Structure formats: C-alpha cells, structure tokens
Amino acid sequence: MSILEAISVIAMTAIGSVVQGSVGIGLSLVAAPALIAIDNDFAPGPLMASGVVVSFRHFLFERKHAVRSDLRSLISGLPFGLAAGIAFIVIADTRLLSIVIGVTILIFAFVLMAGVKVRRTKWSLRFVGAATAFTSSTAALPGPPLALTFSDVEGPRLRGTLGSYVCALGPVLFVALIPAGKFGLDEIRLFATMVPGLVIGLGLSNWARPYLDRSWLRPAILLLSASGGIALILRNL
C-alpha cells in the first residue's frame, strides 16, 4: 500500500466514523467503495472490525435506549444469516464479492432514500437479524437492514439498537471468519491502517453529532453511498 493510499484509507475511515458516530450508520456505506478499490480484502473483516469499534461506543453510552425484546428477536436470526454469509464468501471469488458489495450498497441506498418502512414484529425482526448477519459477513454492512427497520425511531434508539446488535454479532462473526481464511494477518494489518481514522472520526463525532444528527444528512449520505456502489460495480465488471 502506497503512502497516498494509506492517507486515503485514514481519511475515508475518519469520514465514515464521524457519520456512523453521529447518526448510527454510515462507516461502510461511505468508506467501503474507496477502501475496496484499494484492496479487496478490506471487506468483510477489517471494515466490520472498524464497525464494531464504533458500535461499541453506541453500546456503552446508548444501549439503554434499545428495546430488549427487539434485540432478542434480532439475535435469534443471527445464526441463520451468518451461516449463509460465510458459505457465500467461501465459494465466491474476489471480483464477484466486490460486485455483490456494490450492488448491496446501491440497493440499500435507494431503498432507504425511497422511505420504505418495515413493520416491526417478532418474525420481521428475526428476518432482519438474519439479513444483517448476512450483509455483515459478506459486505461488512450491518447498518442498512437495521436502519430500514428502525427508520421511524429517534437517533439514540437506532444507535443503541445497532450498537448492541453489532457488538453481539462481531465476536461470533470473527470466530467464523478466521477458519474460513477471511480474517488473518493480512486483514489485521489492513485494519491497523484504519485505526488512526477511527480515532479521529470518533473524536470528531462527539462534536459533530448535534450538527449531523439531522434530516438533511441522511439523503446526502445515501447519494454518496450510491455513487460509490456504482463505481465499485463498474470497476469489477
């Protein structure tokens, strides 16, 4: 990795961390296209590890806003989505995985922009829990399924729910990724290049949250994410 690429990784990670630290989602949506263009191995392991770091902040300070019955239903779907996701990344080649990540980003960006709402029931939350585990293990994108489901709730509840679920998912996911050959020394080195951006982003998010946790930011994030998803797809066709 060149010095310019390392600076780009730090910058995109910082921007994504500010966004996710402020509104609850956004690190992978914002950073994944650029980081995967530098090295395909940023997904899913290093990006997901970074997401867990940011989510841990939400878990520590905002878990009290999460509804426990919602979390139990989400976690009950975790094993099914995780098993399907690990099976997919084991058989898929790097190019196909990059295209899948780009398509996933694009679909979720447009669905979220369209304002689609999901009715929260025990069974729908189980499905969302499975979908989140799948998108996390394949594309390092835990946020969009949860954001789609909790689009009508206030920021603290979204951040508390996402943070709690991702902190439950993260350790299980990494245990599954290691024997699958998707989170080894190379991925740890890539994650290390993201750490300065995480520190900067989390520090800035405390200051930026009152300004960014507003209605205008979400469409801007989604448009940026959609553009990155399209670029990632075109790069791998």
Describe the structure.
α3 crosses α9 (155-177). The model has no long low-confidence stretch (mean pLDDT 87). The chain has 237 residues and is mainly alpha-helical. It has helices at residues 3-23, 27-38, 45-62, 68-76, 78-91, 94-113, 122-139, 143-149, 155-177, 185-212, 217-236. The radius of gyration is 16 Å and the shape is globular.
Write the layout of secondary structure elements.
Blueprint lengths: L2 H21 L3 H12 L6 H18 L5 H9 L1 H14 L2 H20 L8 H18 L3 H7 L5 H23 L7 H28 L4 H20 L1
Helix pairs in contact: 1-2, 1-3, 1-10, 2-11, 3-9, 3-10, 4-7, 4-9, 5-7, 6-8, 6-11, 7-8, 7-9
Distinctive features:
globular, 237 residues, mainly alpha, 11 helices, single chain
Brief description of this entry?
The chain is an all-alpha fold. It is 80% helix and 0% strand.
**Helical content band:** over 70%
**Oligomeric state of this protein:** single chain
How many domain regions? 1
Report the order of strands and helices: HHHHHHHHHHH
